[in-house]
Specification:
Low-confidence stretches: none
CATH superfamily of the largest domain: Response regulator
CATH architecture of the largest domain: 3-Layer(aba) Sandwich
Oligomer: single chain
Mean pLDDT: 90
Number of domains: 3
Length: 321
């Protein structure tokens, strides 16, 4: 079996450097890490994480707490969990899914929380002694990872303006007090003000049926082309159904955009122009940030916002797939 010294010799670095790459990768340059990882792979070297865990009094367990409903037809969380587990696997960490009631049951080294509402922060964080990372923007100074929600809504609103729409409506989720929704509304509002347009916003449950009913009421009375910026792909699916039932022409009399871009945007007809979040990469970074926080004894990590990408499809441009 290959040893740490063998890896060091193969990579032409010191044993201390190899140890640092394994135990504190955040302290090593990407170039050095790749050099050592390549040597480890060639020699089939497997670090003894179990021994390290005993020495450092670690469990090698990270918990993941979801504080919102999960819909089985939308694989958003499957993408997120893929990213988290992919990163944790590099350091022989196991991932446990837990509920609010079970989050403190059993030993663990750190916790990733998603769906934490601003009003729930104190309750959720109460009694937590291990490092925590939030998946989602917040105003309570909790270290966090999220997509740039403001920029995403700005990209979508600018797009429908550029293709000729002037009556532009925002469909938001009825969580306006939450930071991510405030950010998306802000992105929409900034574009509307910049172009001297009147804002029009509706907030509702994140449901395709609710969005469809609301859109039908609005579109049935419309006397000019309408664009609807949706805060989720789920809502956009409902708006597309409403427009189809009224025989509206996408890209001409109606334009619809969504947000997330992980599945529902591709099963709609036409496919939905959406703001895509790099969910797998965000999951990987959530795990990286938490492991770094664990290694630094809970030191503050701050927040990271990932730039979204606008994917243009047939729901806003005629002839697009």
């Amino acid at each position: 079996m290959a040893t740490l010294a063998d890896v060091a010799k193969k990579a032409n670095v010191s044993k201390m450097t190899v140890s640092r790459v394994i135990n504190h990768p955040d302290q090593v340059s990407d170039e050095l890490k790749q050099l050592v990882y390549h040597a480890m792979e060639e020699l089939e070297y497997v670090p003894n994480y179990a021994a390290r865990a005993l020495v450092q009094n670690r469990t090698q367990v990270v918990k993941f707490l979801i504080l919102e409903e999960i819909d089985t037809v939308e694989p958003y969380y499957m993408n997120l969990l893929t990213g988290i587990s992919r990163e944790l696997d590099k350091y022989s960490y196991s991932l446990q899914l837990v509920t609010q009631k079970s989050k403190n049951i059993g030993a663990y080294d750190g916790l990733i929380i998603t769906g934490m509402r601003d009003s729930e922060v104190e309750k959720v964080m109460a009694g937590l002694e291990k490092p925590v990372i939030a998946y989602g923007e917040n105003r309570r100074d909790v270290d966090a990872i999220d997509v740039d929600n403001r920029l995403g809504a700005e990209l979508a609103t600018t797009h429908v303006y550029d293709v000729g729409f002037r009556h532009i409506i925002f469909f938001g989720i009825n969580l306006i007090e939450e930071e991510f929704m405030r950010s998306r509304l802000t992105g929409y509002s900034e574009v509307m003000k910049r172009n001297g347009l009147m804002e029009e916003s509706y907030f509702m449950k994140n449901s395709s049926r609710v969005a469809e009913k609301t859109a039908l009421d609005i579109l049935d009375k419309a006397t000019e082309p309408v664009a609807i910026i949706c805060a989720s792909d789920r809502m956009a699916v409902g708006v597309v159904r409403a427009a189809n039932s009224l025989n509206m022409k996408f890209g001409e009399t109606i334009a619809v955009t969504g947000f997330d871009g992980v599945f529902l945007d591709r099963i709609s007809s036409p496919k939905i122009t959406t703001v895509r979040s790099p969910v797998i990469e965000m999951g990987e970074t959530s795990a990286q940030m938490l492991l770094k926080k664990i290694n630094e004894n809970g030191a503050k990590q701050g927040s990271t916002l990932f730039p979204p990408k606008l994917i243009v499809r047939g729901s806003t441009v005629a002839g697009k797939e």
